[in-house]
Specification:
Elements: H1 3-26, H2 30-50, H3 56-59, H4 65-87, H5 92-99, H6 103-114, H7 120-136, H8 152-178, H9 184-205, H10 211-217, H11 219-240, H12 245-251, H13 254-265, H14 273-291
């Protein structure tokens, strides 16, 4: 990874962990994020107009961009639904690190779908990040704590966080292709449009009708989270134009460190030696990824 891409991902990770912290603390619903995505559309619309690419880029996008946008928006919507539900039953310092374990799956998709190759140093770094994420999620070093399913009260949150990670790995590879077709700031506008539509369909199927109530009660929070969420992913998309997607997705897992610390310090979640071990392993892994070519 280049120094600039590392810097972009580090800033993105801090912003990303911040809006996850606010999401956990505020116990926000999927209706809340419908408004977040909708405001994301409005947030980037001035760039379309300013660069004189609206509505031409919208009406005649390059190549298969619409298919990429539809698929990415679908999997990003799944990611948000699973993440929100996981937060309803699990700690931030547990759910967030697990949901950031996407490198395991991203590595597979990137090799199979877009032909990326990884150096031994990069593979070692990704491996250490994943091991670190695993240790962060443990209650202790006893064998009975090594299996997430052995904790019934947390098993649903573990599963949902893992599904969020899988969805994240898929849309990350799709987005790597998408930002090669259009500038990331325009691509992110399309993604917000796609997620707004997908989320709206999900809410319609579930017959949720609290949209206006959520907006009236949480205007400021919606606008704030929209800025954070869009800003964080814009930086990641920019980094993807400079480095391999597997390395970018792995290196942004530094956000798991920030998220775990926020949960322990601000939400008073229990700190364990296993989480400290996990943080150490992740830090070493991230350094290896940063040095990988």
């Amino acid at each position: 990874m280049t120094p600039l891409s590392i810097l972009l991902v580090l800033i993105s990770a801090l912003i990303h962990s911040s809006w996850n912290f606010f999401t956990k603390r505020g116990n926000f619903s999927i209706e809340f994020f419908f408004w977040v995505f909708l405001w994301g559309i409005l947030l980037y619309l001035p760039f379309f107009i300013g660069f004189s690419v609206f509505p031409s880029l919208f009406l005649a996008p390059p190549g298969k961009l619409w298919w990429l946008v539809i698929l990415s928006g679908f999997f990003e919507t799944i990611y948000f639904i699973c993440l929100i539900q996981a937060y309803h039953g699990g700690d931030l310092s547990l759910v967030y690190p697990i949901s950031r374990s996407a490198p395991l799956f991203t590595q597979f998709w990137a090799i199979v779908l877009i032909g990326e190759t990884l150096s031994p140093l990069g593979i070692s770094g990704i491996g250490l990040v994943l091991i670190g994420l695993y240790f962060i999620s443990l209650k202790g070093f006893h064998l009975k704590h090594m299996i997430p399913g052995s904790h019934p009260s947390l098993s649903r949150s573990y599963l949902l966080a893992l599904l969020a990670a899988i969805a994240s790995s898929i849309y990350s590879v799709i987005d790597k292709v998408g930002v090669q077709m259009v500038h990331p700031i325009f691509y992110l506008w399309f993604i917000n449009l796609s997620m707004t539509i997908h989320t709206g369909i999900y809410l319609a199927i579930r017959k949720q009708n609290a949209l206006w109530k959520v907006w009236s009660e949480s205007k400021k929070e919606i606008l704030w989270i929209s800025l954070l969420q869009n800003g964080a992913y814009f930086l990641v998309l920019m980094a993807m134009t400079m480095s391999k997607v597997s390395y970018v997705v792995a290196f942004r897992q530094v956000g798991a460190l920030f998220g775990a610390l926020m949960g322990m310090v601000f939400l008073k979640e229990k700190s364990r030696i296993t989480r400290l071990v996990g943080v150490t392993l992740m830090t070493i892994g991230l350094l290896l990824i940063g040095l990988a070519k």
